[in-house]
Amino acid sequence: MQKAVFPIQSHADITKAINFMHTNYTQAINEGKPLRVVIDQRQDDRSTAQNRLYWMWLGQIERKTGQDKDSLHYEFKKKFLIYIYRRDDQEFAETCNAIAMLKQNECEEYRVIAEQVIRLCSTTKLSIKQMTEYLNYVHDFAVTQLHVHLTVPDDLKWCYQD
């Protein structure tokens, strides 16, 4: 029997899971391999839809400002992503504090280290909730600071709404 996973987001999903168990439990018992049910909460990584929306927005900003997508991505990581990681990851916060100490001590390596940390930060490891927050920051910045209206296509609206 194939492994089955049922994300439960509505009552209809509960019905699907129960129907699957109902359909397959006799065969499983007859084979001497009873069904095992595991229930947990899972926090998915950011979705590919959120990623598509983000890079689409970077393209829209690039067309309006002339600044290329990669440099926009770097600037947004510096402005917004660092804040999210620093708030949500204690080890990362400690790293940022150590870098800030280098800056205070006028250490020459400060800029190189800080830039490398920014480059290594990635939206890939964000949860869906964190990526939504990041998208909100990028959207608000584009509208208020760059005066760029960002579009959200109908097929991606679900991945942006909080």
UniProtKB/TrEMBL annotation:
It comes from the Bacteria. This is NinB family protein. The lineage of its organism: Bacteria, Pseudomonadati, Pseudomonadota, Gammaproteobacteria, Moraxellales.
